[in-house]
Amino acid sequence: MNNFTPREIVSELDRYIVGQNNAKRAVAVALRNRWRRQHVESDLREEIAPKNIIMIGPTGVGKTEIARRLARLAQAPFIKVEASKFTEVGYVGRDVESMVRDLVELAIAMVKAEESKSQRIKAEDLAEERLLDMLLPGEKNLEDAKEGSSTTRDKLRRLLRMGELNERMVEVETQDTQMPSMQVFGPQGPEEMGFNIKEMFGNIFPHKTKKRRMKVSEAQELLIEIEAEKLVDMDKVQTLAKERTEQNGIIFIDEIDKIASREGGHGPEVSREGVQRDILPIVEGSTVITKYGPIKTDHILFIAAGAFHVAKPSDLIPELQGRFPIRVELDSLEEADFVRILTEPHNALIRQYQALMATEGINLEFSEDAIREIAKTAASVNQRTENIGARRLHTIMETLLEELSFNAPERSERSFPIDAAFVHERLSAIADNEDLSRYIL
User: Is pLDDT of 281 > 60?
Assistant: First the structure.
C-alpha cells in the first residue's frame, strides 16, 4: 500500500474532484488508518476494524468519483456495486456475497498483471527464441549445418532487435480459449457457482489451437504476453490476491438509500429489509466461500453512498447504521462549482472537448464569459428540473457542440471561438422552456 499522508491524499483527489472537502478528508483518514494498522503489533492489528463511511448527497456531486480515485491511489482492489441489484436470499437476483467474489476476481487480475510485468524480461528472451524458430523453419533438423545455421540465427537476431524484420509476416500458433457453450445455474444464479466450469471441463475437451498470420512486430508482443503468462506462478497470485482483498479491498455500495425501509411501508419494503440483513454480516465481518478459497471480510473497507431524497440514513436497520460510523454530507453544486469543474480538474470537460476537436484539426477556444454562461445554464436547469449535479454539464456541452461535432470533418476553418453570445444563442431557447429543458437538457 502506498504511504500517502491524509494531506497528500486530499491533494491528489483535488486534481479530479472539485470541493467536497469533508468527504475527501474522511476517506483520506480512512485510507491512512489502513496504513497505520499494518504497522501495529500483530496481536492488536486483528482487533482494529475499518471505519466504514456513508456518503450522503444528491447524484452527480462526486461520491463515486471520490471512491474510485481513492482506490486507484491506494492500488487496492475496488469494486462498485448497486445495492438495488441485490435481492433477499430465496428470491431471483444477485446474492450479496457476489460482491466479495467479484472483488477477489478483480484482485486476481491485478496481481496477475503485476506478476506478468515482473516476468517481462525473461518473457522477451523466450519470445525472441520462438520468433527465430518461426523465421528459420527446419533449423532444428539441420544437424550437419549447425555452424552455418547458428550464424544465420545470429544475423536474424540482430536484424530482429534492430527492427528490420518488423514488416515480415509470420504464422503464430495460439491456443483457442473458446469453450463449448454451457451454462450452469446455481440456486442464486449463474455467477454464484463455487467452481469454475472452464477449469472443471478443461481436461475433458481437447485444447484447440489456431494459426494467426501477422507482422513480426505484432507477433513479438503477443508471444511476450503468452510467455509472461506461462512464467506466472498462479498459486502465488492467488495467495497475494486473497491477502490484498482481505487487507486492502474497497467495496463501494451505491444507492444504499434504495434499500432503506421507510416506516409504515408495505410490500417491497420487507424485501428491502431482507437485503439489509443479508449485507449486514458481510459488513460486520464474515467468511465468504469463493473458488479461490474462503475470504474474510473483517478488514475490507465499505463505502456506502446514497442521495437519501425520500429515505433517511436512520431508516436503515440499526445494526447496519452502526457499521457505518463515519457519515459525511456532500454539498449540492452551485454555479461557481460548475465553473471550476469545467476548467480546474486534470480531466476537465473543456480540456476533453478541446482534445477531441484537435483530432479533426480544429482549435476550440472558450472565453471566460462562455464558461460562466455554461455554468449559469447548468445551475439554472438543475434548480428548475431534476438536480443531477455535474452530469448536467455533459448534456449541455453535447447540445452546445452538436453542430460542430457533426460538421467537423468537412469544416475548412481551423479555429472555432466560443463566447457567451454563442452559448446563449444555442441554449437559451431550450433552457428557458421548462418542458424542453426537462427532456433535452
Answer: yes
Length of the chain: 441
Residue 121 CA: distances (Å) to CA of 113, 174, 195, 232, 275: 14, 21, 34, 13, 49
Give the residue carrying C-alpha cell 463515519. 326
Q: Distance between CA atoms of 69 and 61, rounded to whole angstroms?
A: 14
Give the span between the Cα atoms of 243 and 366, in whole angstroms.
49
As a whole number, mean pLDDT of residues 206-228 equals 77
* Three-class secondary structure of residue 112 per DSSP: helix
pLDDT at 31: 86
User: Is-contact 4 251, C-beta < 8 A?
Assistant: no
C-alpha span between 216 and 279 (Å, rounded): 52
pTM: 0.76
Are the C-beta atoms of residues 364 and 46 closer than 8 Å to each other? no
Domains in the chain, start-ordered, CATH in brackets?
A: 6-110+242-329 (3.40.50.300), 120-231 (no CATH), 335-430 (1.10.8.60)
- Residue pointed to by grid coordinates 474497497: 250
Contact criterion met (CB below 8 Å) for 183 and 190: yes
Tell how many helices (H) and how many strands (E) occur in the chain. Answer: 19, 11
Q: How much is the average pLDDT of 93-111?
A: 87
Tell me which residue of 101, 113, 31, 38 sits closest to 73, measured CA to CA. 31
pLDDT at 186: 46
> Which grid coordinates belong to 309?
431524497
What pLDDT, in 10s, does the model give residues 331-366?
Answer: 888 889 999 999 988 888 999 999 999 998 899 999
Other beta carbons within 10 angstroms of residue 222's beta carbon come to 15
β-strand pairing of 250-254 with 209-215: unpaired
